[in-house]
Amino acid sequence: MHLTLATLLHGFDFVRPGSKPVDMTEGIGLTVPRATPLDVLLSPRLPPHLYG
Length: 52
Hints:
This protein has one helix spanning 2-11, and strands spanning 12-15, 41-44. It is an alpha+beta fold.
């Protein structure tokens, strides 16, 4: 799990669509889920031939 997350963070740029701030409202449940999901757009940092 840690390696997968590190690979995503290292290999891609994360951008939020729009300019609204992140909604941190909590939903109902035992694990305190977010009331609204976080939307992000991923764009590769490196040239495509390096991901093969």
